[in-house]
Specification:
Elements (H helix, E strand, L loop, with lengths): L13 H19 L6 H8 L3 H7 L3 H20 L6 H13 L4 H13 L4 H27 L8 H16 L11 H4 L1 H9 L6 H10 L1
Helix pairs in contact: 1-2, 1-4, 2-3, 4-6, 4-7, 5-7, 5-11, 7-8, 8-10
Length: 212
Amino acid sequence: MESSAPASRTRKAPEERREEILSAAAEIALAEGLERITLRAVATRLGVRPGLISHYFPAAEDLVEEAFVRAATAERERFFPTEGPPVQRLAHFVHHIATGASLPLARLWLNARHLSRFTPSLDTTLQEQDALDRARLRSLIEDGIAGGDFAAVDAEAASIRILIAVDGSGSYVNSSEDLTHPAHADFVADVCEWTLGMEPGTLARAIAEDDA
């Protein structure tokens, strides 16, 4: 009987392996929190030895920070579409928050802001990511102002107010309290409409149009 030789393990290119490690770490960050990112946890998820992870990330802190960046970047692309009418793009963003799609990201930001008190480099990373979110939102608002969809407001100030509303709403993410009251559930949409001079209910109608 002819026997078959065991399959050899394929060696991945360094860039591919590094991307794989970061993706796994980002998944852990969103699902379990930044504290749960360890070399062993990532290795277990990938089915490799911890030594392989430390080869690419000798300092676990570097892996934690890059995993946060990876997760925040991926979620930014989901929440802030760059194509389409400004009102629909803003409605897409608000809808993700209202339906709970942003809860993993809200937990991650809350978690990261707490840890950044003790890790200056993580605080710097948070400031950089916050600036990128604000720039993306500001660009959306500027498009809406130019097209007459939003009032001629200070786009930077408006983006800051809206993101403060998002963070304020997200601060309840770990609460077991019933948060279905419209004052809470619609808070971000209300702030968006108020700060951009939109008629109340505009975003709800835009969301309904998308769902139709």
